[in-house]
Amino acid sequence: MRQSELFVRTAREDPKDEESLNAKLLIRAGYVHKVMAGVYAFLPLGLRVFKKVEDIIRRKMVRMGGNEVLLSALQPKADWDKTGRWDEFDVLFKFTSHYSGNDYVLGPTHEEELTPLMRQHLFSYRDLPAYVFQFQNKFRDEKRAKSGLLRGREFFMKDFYSFHATEDELDSYYDSMKDAYVEIFEEVGIGDRTYLTLASGGTFAKYSHEFQTLTEAGEDIIHICDSCHAAVNEEVLESGSACPLCGKKDLHAEKAIEVGNIFKLRDRFSAPFDLNFKDENGEVKKVMMGCYGIGINRLIGAVVEASHDARGIIWPEGIAPFKFHLIESKKGEAEKIYEDLVKDGFDVLYDDRDVGLGEKFADADLMGIPWRLVVSPRTEGRIEVKKRNEEKAELFDYEDIRKF
């Protein structure tokens, strides 16, 4: 893509109404636009990152047997009354129709919609297990939206739901989903600093699991065991207690951002909606459920918090908007190379703007594309190659770039 045609405008100064680093950098680099507190629109560069994250997650969820759906964001009060969460869930966006007088909620999650839907599909043990997932925007009326993309009032989430005949089947699948999540976070570039963390199960169970990414900007405190590398959220760790896995007290505290969570719902939602099945003996039983979430906005924000320097963002290659940022010192100098790169299938942003080289370099660092390619008279017909997170640049012939 030619940068002169890209719908993006960078800024040298931080936005005045933002405190979080992820929002400052993403806004300055032209990835997102702040609509209001807790609500961000994705611009072309940001949407490319969003889609790459989404594609990584989708591939893993399909491999886990998931059937993708798209449920509605608007949900009736009656279903939330059945689960008791109309009054319990304290961040619901509630409103009344001007025409029908009925009460509705903008979905912060989708158990209340999906569970009754599954009554039309699950009747027998032969119908189980079943797996359904979606990518959907969620709404939560946070008292104080803060931390940029990490805590919003509107955000996108992948939510996956599993349906099982027995708790043993749920437990087995739950463990396999842990492994799938580990692979996702490795592929988006934060696997080396993301920990599977024991957390509170809330109203669903005694414990659940979170995936927490270490960063100084973290909202949570987790305690990591130096002996077995398990992690425990501070909310479930008693003072002076030992590691729940190995029993040792070699724990140290770290700040972290939650980038995913998984819960064993069991019959928390199947019971109020009478989601039942008949087993091999014709006995009616409750369907056991699990849910598995990853917030996409939150994950993108966490990557920026974990991977940046004083000059801007440093995108991991797996989710960067482009692989290469091609820069020329004078207009038209790199035209042929750009055309060849595109023809050879490379994902490249070509800075063909009629601005100074210094401005181009500053924007390239701010945008954080993994590899910078520079063509100028001083490269003498070769291409200067520099990785975004390294200072040293090297000269390559074009054929070497292709191999590289």
State the total count of DSSP E strands.
23
Helical region count?
A: 10
CATH class of the largest domain: Alpha Beta
Strand content: 25-35%
Structural Rg: 24 Å
Reported CATH architecture of the largest domain: 2-Layer Sandwich
Structural class, by secondary structure, is alpha+beta
Question: On the 0-100 scale, what is the average pLDDT?
Answer: 94
Spatial sequence of strands, sheet with the most strands: 9-10-13-11-12
- The CATH topology of the largest domain is given as BirA Bifunctional Protein, domain 2
CATH homologous superfamily annotation of the largest domain: Bira Bifunctional Protein, Domain 2
Distance between the termini: 21 Å
Shape: elongated
What does it look like?
The structure is a single chain. The chain is an alpha+beta fold and 404 residues long. It folds into two domains: 13-309, 2-Layer Sandwich (BirA Bifunctional Protein, domain 2); 322-403, Anticodon-binding domain (Rossmann fold). Helices cover 26% and strands 31% of the residues. The protein has ten helices and 23 strands. It has helices spanning 21-28, 44-63, 77-83, 85-88, 111-118, 167-187, 296-306, 335-343, 357-367, 398-403, and strands at residues 32-36, 39-42, 67-68, 74-76, 93-96, 103-106, 130-139, 154-164, 194-200, 207-214, 220-225, 231-233, 251-266, 276-278, 284-286, 288-295, 308-309, 312-313, 324-328, 348-351, 371-375, 383-387, 393-396. The strands form six sheets. A five-stranded mixed barrel has the order 9-10-13-11-12. Helix 1 packs across helix 7 and helix 2 (44-63) runs antiparallel to helix 6. The protein starts with 20 loop residues before the first helix and ends with a helix. 38% of the residues are buried. The mean pLDDT is 94.
